[in-house]
Hints:
2 copies of one chain form a homodimer.
Chain A: H1 13-22, E1 26-27, H2 28-38, H3 47-60, E2 63-68, E3 75-80, H4 82-105
Antiparallel strand pairs in A: 1-3, 2-3
The first copy, chain A, binds a DNA duplex through residues 6, 9-11, 13, 27-30, 45-55, 72-76.
Amino acid sequence: MEAINPELLRGSLELMVLSTLFGGKKYGYLIQSTLWESSREVIEIKAGTLYPILHKLEKEGWVKSQWENDTGRRRKWYELTTSGKKQLRTRANEWRQYVECLRRVLGSLGEMSPQLA
Amino acid sequence: MEAINPELLRGSLELMVLSTLFGGKKYGYLIQSTLWESSREVIEIKAGTLYPILHKLEKEGWVKSQWENDTGRRRKWYELTTSGKKQLRTRANEWRQYVECLRRVLGSLGEMSPQLA
DNA sequence: TCCGCATACATTGCCGAGCGATATATTGCC
DNA sequence: GGCAATATATCGCTCGGCAATGTATGCGGA
């Protein structure tokens, strides 16, 4: 018995952050609001979750950051690195595989009384 | 800003166990192997995870159990209750909504170099 | 016969994700 | 002047999942 990467049984927030940065360079607070909107007001990543994730992503070399000093607001801009894009591709594929897997496991529920919501 | 049930950001193992029991009455070890097969050798729920889940599901009233005393092997059979079926329906819908949500968030990745795996 | 493996259930303790709470500082509006 | 929104950061808690461990039985092969 061998199994899938157990990491993605747990959260997919890192994936979402990486994905959001794929849309272009962003700072923390902007990542929060972008994610909130792209998920149609569903995913509300908390500050206490987001910043530690960003620090980790940087430590792993998947993003690089730069402080903005010119304008008034103090902002730290994050950008995907090459290895970050690779990581994103990997994670996205793992996610798709996991979804497909769950689809199979839940397959038999098709016959369940199909009450939506 | 309001958000979805944060529980399913975490694991979906309870959902999988409930779903497996929808296929009929089963004992712990059989749930493990059924899940393993229905997921095509991907989901390997560990004993240290499964049994605490089953105890919790019973405590919540979503399953009921009965010890098998006739045959040699000592087995505890679990069965979905009515409220358990309702719970399963709810959880399955939450899962589908979450998947749809992620699909939207990852939507922009469609243009990413489409290397499979 | 008996050793080892699969079966079968259970509990304890650890790890780590996500979050609430809190802290700090600035901008903009009423 | 005061309050909300913006912006980043850290600490400590909770809880899911799992490795490790314990116990016990049935079965096949050497």
